[in-house]
Amino acid sequence: MNHQQLDEFLRSLDAVEQIQIHTGKNVNDLEPLGFQINGIEHEILRMEGKYFFESGSIYMSKHHRFADMPLHNHDFIEMNYMYSGECRQVIDGREIRLEQGQICILDTNVPHSIYALGENDILVNLIMKMETFSTTFFGRFSNTGIVADFLANAVSRDRRHDRYILFHSEHHENVQYIFKNMLCEFWSPQDYAQQMLSHYVPLLLTELMRVYQLDMNFELDHRPGKASIIDILQYIEQHYRDCTLPQLGATFNFNPNYLGNLLKEQTGKTFRELVQTQRMLHAETLLRHTHQSISEIAYEVGYESLGFFYRKFKAYTGYTPSQYREREGRANEI
After folding, report:
1. Strand arrangement of the beta sheet that strand 40-41 belongs to
2. Distance between CA atoms of 278 and 259, rounded to whole angstroms?
3. Cβ pair 279, 301 in contact under 8 A
4. Do 165 and 216 meet the contact criterion of CB atoms below 8 Å apart?
5. Exposed/middle/buried for residue 73 (C-beta within 10 Å: 0-12, 13-18, 19+)
6. What whole-number distance in Å separates Cα of residue 64 and Cα of residue 78?
7. pTM metric for this prediction
8. How far, in Å, CA of 204 to CA of 202, rounded?
9. pLDDT tens-digit series, residues 148-193
10. Order of strands across the sheet with 77-84?
């Protein structure tokens, strides 16, 4: 299947849509899988991943048009991709609009409903097991920066598990290309489809990490002149060597004490801890990928005292810088 064939496939009416276009009522097409959609608890439908993952840990589907999808939640990670047109969803009580090319990642247990889609409104879903998402995200992104760490933590580690992220990815061509390739792979009867999808997922997530314009149900309130938590974390990533809390507050028009409290509330870390984390992450990268001396690395990441850098690095990683470099070097040789 190529992209043209994919477009024709997605725009054609499937069996459920042929009914819904006439009745305007939601048809439960999950009954053949043994799932009874009328099992309601507290007026929220519950979907379980065991009905979708028999052939692998990643499943993709087209959302059926022409009827409202009732309020529901599930025990798996869901990624909504607006292939064409737009849709309105109510996620955790908040109405959002998903426009063509945008992606929304829903954590487990997020209650959401979807208003009826029109003929040109093509919404596709990628769902994956929680452990698949967590392994992919934490294994590849949790040590790339505090923004990545925050997003990973927000989606996969937060105890409430009722969050979502809307990525304004409509102008990111690589995101569109990768997602369309994944859809072609899933609906083409080829060998190793799941293996291919498992390789595409980290590529897709990597591209999404480049999309810094986000809507979230856990961000700072957007008020005139105020930046989002992502803007602030991105600034810390770029200026961690010499950034101070008063300077950060002045840059984003926040009272320093107020901003410090907000950072702690939103990320679980103090400003000092965020700066310390970014220093350690960059130091790890330099130890793995350069031949700079440890004293040069300490100075580059913002430490004038080599002994202090040693203590902080060992407290963070459990290894001295020398031990870490030797350990990582051996791992790369294996």
Report:
1. 40-41, 44-47, 69-74, 112-114, 86-91, 94-99
2. 18
3. yes
4. yes
5. buried
6. 16
7. 0.64
8. 5
9. 665 665 554 444 555 788 888 998 999 999 999 999 999 987 888 8
10. 58-62, 122-128, 77-84, 103-106, 164-167, 214-216
